[in-house]
Amino acid sequence: MTRFLIRRIILGLVTLWVIITLVFILYYARPGVDPARELAGRAVTPALLANINKAYGFNLPVYVQYWNYLKRLVPIPGQFNLGISNNNHLPVTTIIAQAVPIDISLAVGSAVIWMVLGISVGVLAARRPRSLWDRGATVFVLTGVSMPTFILGLLLLYVLYYLLTIHGIAIFPKPGSYTPITTNPLEWAHDLILPWITLALITAATYSRLTRSSLLEVLGEDYIRTARAKGLSERRVVYRHALRSSLTPIVTQFGIDLATVLGGAIITESIFGLPGLGLAVVQAIEVQNLPVVIGIVLVASFFVVAANIVVDALYAVLDPRVRVS
Amino acid sequence: MTLLAVDNLTVSFPTADGTVQAVRGLSFSVEAGKTLGVVGESGSGKSVSALTMLGLNPGADITGSAVFNGKELLTMNQQQLRQIRGADIAMIFQDPLSSLHPHFRVGWQIAEAIRAHTSVNKRDAKTQAVELLRLVNIPQPERRVEAYPHEMSGGMRQRVMIAMALALKPKLLIADEPTTALDATVQAQLMELLVQMQNEVGMAMIIITHDLGVIASVADEVLVMYAGRASERADARTTFFSPHHPYTRGLLGSVPSATGVVGSRLTPIIGSPPSLISVPTGCGFHPRCPFAMEMCIDDQPDLVEIPAGGHHVSACWLPPEMTGVGVAMDTARQRYASAHRGVRSSKLPGVVAAVEGATVYA
């Protein structure tokens, strides 16, 4: 088990290194590109270019630049440095540190909703195939899969915030509200409920479809027949024996989705005015604020790699056969 | 005492291609503490009948009756059946790898069966699981109780299944092809274990198999099934030495022998079992039967008593005088003979004559 995890972590670090190197080549060492010019943004002056060249060492040989770039990314306090935003001259790490809690809040809350909703609908559909429940679940899945985030988000805002509020029922907060969980957990949940629902409804559909097909397959297995022949209750057969085996594809999908939201839910954040990584990267791209773009790309890829390691660890917890291989 | 009496059982499954008539009027009974061997090719309705009695065939249309221990099984609801499954009637299956849950420790799976029917706590259930593993001759049961199914060999896994089935000392154990997925030496050990357990627990057994050799040494009575019906039923000695139905003779003739004449060929049954969506008219076996007559095509024979043997019934139009004609000695019957020379010969009067008969043939 420990060896398995260590191998996965090493593989994850290698993946991160490849991404970091690709980002370096793409932004600093691409042929025919002056990285100082790229970094300077739109308001370029020769003095600024000279400053950037000096600060980043773009006049040094490429391998020295690469080495310095790698050194800046070693996660030791005082050494870790993602550069300075050329917009407001704040360190990129500060900008990211402000945005990440919002994405974690978004991800955790919506993940709980989409998992509970998606898996329950999937189980109901699988237990009574071709029933009214199953048909209803199919409609839910099709709606969720085909509904774009910006339509669902705007619809929720229009109906639940705008229409209710102008009729004097102000239950839902106005877009852009955000209270840190450390300040007031209830207020935190209240402010995030609409973005959560938006993300969850769109994502849950995938999970109910996955749960349904995976559970239906497992319910046909021999060991489910054994469980029934032992005299277990149908509830125990479905939830303890069958659902347990159906979790593998769900966990895979969960890792991908969670990492995606953590790395910035661009559309949801834009609609609800939440200053997370997604909104930050959109704003940075608009003004060619490259240090921020690069920083967020690296953080987002870190989340993806980390989520994959967690998923692999979960596999091993779920299925003892994975631990030996 | 009759433990299980099945009467005129029919099971059919509606499918898109038509109705599959898996079992078509099956009657048999099992005495307490005795062993019934159920033999037939794939698709003859052996497993379906067993699963139907336990209510494990969702979506099937069922008629007839199956009275177990004085109670009708076929009209019970799932809750009532659940109390019988695993406790009074236990079942083991063909492939022990796919029949055990891959994600749970074997001890946990045995303990779960115990806790489903009794109110023992987890620790005591686990202690019982260790004892059960010891009972089925698994070495180091204290350690093995923590193993996962994939960490065991096929024979060990089937022993775990048997331990699980015996956990609540059932009155009836149904073994559905218990040794088919295992190699020959393990087969023999497991059949021996089943007999040993039967003596210990005193349960009745139904052993379902397509291989007459498997049940030769253990069955008291043999039921031969073809296309969802009983074609012949008799005590084991009669089945092996003077079968009446041509299908039973065919099954005996297609088992290879270790002592037969060198260079002699097996006699296979020509053709393959019929589709259960369109079963042949008359006797279901007539398209493959070497003795088929005009009437076999039109009229379905019922089980009729063959006067010579004890409780011998056969569903064939051939006259009773044809019993046992043209059957050569083979492995299955040798196994029967050698098994009954030993421990169990006292249970079956008349076996000595059978063994003498066997020597003549060999």
State the fourth-level CATH superfamily of the largest domain in chain B. Answer: P-loop containing nucleotide triphosphate hydrolases
The backbone outline of chain B, from C-alpha atoms, is globular
CATH topology of the largest domain in chain A: MetI-like fold
Which structural class fits the helix and strand makeup of chain A? Answer: mainly alpha
How widely separated are the two ends of chain A? 10 Å
Question: What is the CATH class name of the largest domain in chain A?
Answer: Mainly Alpha
How many helical stretches of chain A? 14
Quaternary form? heterodimer
* Average pLDDT figure of chain B: 84
Indicate the CATH topology of the largest domain in chain B. Answer: Rossmann fold
Structure summary, number of beta strands of chain B: 12
The CA-CA distance between the termini of chain B, in Å, is: 38 Å
Strand residue content of chain A? under 5%
Low-confidence stretches of chain A: none
Compact overview of the structure:
Chain A is an all-alpha fold. Chain A has helices at residues 2-27, 35-40, 46-56, 62-72, 92-127, 132-146, 149-166, 185-219, 222-229, 234-262, 266-272, 277-286, 290-318, 320-324. The two termini of chain B are 38 Å apart.
Label this structure with key terms.
heterodimer, A: 325 residues, mainly alpha, MetI-like fold, 14 helices, 76% helix, B: 362 residues, alpha/beta, Rossmann fold, 2 domains, disordered C terminus
